[in-house]
Amino acid sequence: RDLADPQGYGAVEYAYALMAKAAGVKMTKCRIFEENGRRHFMTKRFDRLDGGEKLHMQSLGAIAHFDFNNADAYSYEQAIAVMRRLQLPMQDIEEQFRRMAFNVVARNQDDHVKNIAFLMDKRGGWSLSPAYDVMYCYNPSGKWTSRHQMSLNNKRDGFDREDFRVVERTASMKRGRADEILDEVCGAVSRWREFAEQAGVDPVLSDEVERNHRTGLAST
Description:
Blueprint: H1 9-22, E1 30-35, E2 38-43, E3 56-59, H2 60-64, E4 74-75, H3 76-85, H4 90-105, E5 117-120, E6 126-128, E7 150-151, H5 161-170, H6 177-189, H7 192-199, H8 203-211
Parallel strand pairs: 4-7
Antiparallel strand pairs: 1-2, 3-5, 5-6
């Protein structure tokens, strides 16, 4: 992207971070840094301890040998299966489910296997990293972002609530959690204008983003 960010994507990314946090998605601290008319989205690294010591990090693609370039090959169910092999707790599995729901509802279709990551502590224990690259990514004529890069219930578009319930069962989540999480996410995404205004997103761009949200997945 141009350093001056003429299309305002820095502000959109900040608005998405605010919205994701409102949806219960775990992210590190972030802010907009403005200088000389430029707006930079900044976020705290999660692969460093407070003293600067490095935490070992591996993406889903790296740890499972999933080919990032094969965009149609992988699913959110496969991500959950990897998490089980790493012996991650249900809390982390539900967190990943929440991120999946957010990506679908908020149209982050750049949801490839390098955008899920895990951290390992000194004892060799794994955990799900905070979310990152949480951004509006949808282009109906785009090679990579015309549909989701990871599927759920064998779909990359045209989702309904039952698709999320299928993933809930696959993940051995408590019955009803899919509906609860999906409604929480839809509730946060329905507040898009609030976050867009807070971040200073251009109104024309804000309208375009809102038109493509899938808040219709909320329960009626």
